[in-house]
Amino acid sequence: MTGRLFALGLAALVLAGCQRHTDEAPGTLEYDRITLPAPAGERIVALHVRAGESVKAGQPLLDLDPAHTQANLDAAQADVRRQQEALAEGVAGPRQEDIARARATLASAQAQARDAQRYLERLQKVAQQERDAVAASDLDRARANAQNTGGQADAARAALDQLLHGTRSEQLAQARAAVAAAQAQADALRVTLGKLHVVAPRDGRIDDVPYRLGDQAPVGAPLAIELVGDRPYARIYVPVAMRAQLKVGSAVQVHVQVHVQGRDQPLAGHVRLLRAEPVFTPYYALSGDDATRLSYLAEVTLDQPSDLPAGLPVHVAPARP
């Protein structure tokens, strides 16, 4: 008789456990988190807050060493000025002194070309009058010299025309693009320099400051983690049997009661997110055959502001009418 009562009691406990897992969704209280990553791999030179402190938007949290970034910014600004001067030079075109020098070079080349041409003509005339008076090699050298000086005169004329026409539009476009690229680089470094003074983006509470004074965090590593919002939300795992009772964004949206450990009265809330794809039941909801069942990740927002800490275990059940 005693064994039969024990078996009935054990069966009742098992059924109660199963009922709990089908009528309630386990989870924890969470806050929206903001992670502030390191914009540059610089040392922390000042810490203004500690974990657990409440902060206001814009309040300083910590400072990174700005020396290296400031030097890069100075170099980038110098490059901007250099590119701007190069563009101004292209817009202004050649100097009058350069044009005058090109005219003088052309005049000199033309004079040499005329002299070489006259010398060639004299040799040719003499060669026509007296067959053996001029050697063929001398005549060839005079002809080559005339052609060479004529080519130099043509090159000098082309150089003068290039100066007179001014800077090509394609060169000006390239110079403007170089100025824009240098300015963009300087702007990016200026933004990075401003980020070295890390401030709170919103009102909230500092959850963690992973690095300490003097540490050099790698780029992208979290310098501070802030919890924001005036109320937590419950991240829960909804069992299959309870999934059909919960909806999001519809007229039949179900409000839930969040049973918080350490409080007698449940807290009202509503479902703000409910995943369509199932996930495996989390470790703290496993019990016997339930280990093979699937659950659906959901988030429940509390209807009233609360100062409850993150991480508290909760169980969520549909609100009773």
CATH fold category name of the largest domain: OB fold (Dihydrolipoamide Acetyltransferase, E2P)
Beta strand %? 25-35%
Q: Work out the helicity level.
A: 40-55%
- What characteristic shape results from the CA principal axes? elongated
Which strand order does the major sheet show?
Answer: 1-7-11-9-8-12
Work out the radius of gyration.
43 Å
Order of helices and strands: HEEEEHHHHEEEHEEEEE
Biggest pleated sheet: 6 strands, antiparallel, barrel
CATH uppermost class of the largest domain: Mainly Beta
Span of the ends, CA to CA = 42 Å
Q: Provide the residue-averaged pLDDT.
A: 81
Coiled coil: 99-133
Subcellular location: Cell envelope
Protein name: HlyD family efflux transporter periplasmic adaptor subunit
Main location: other
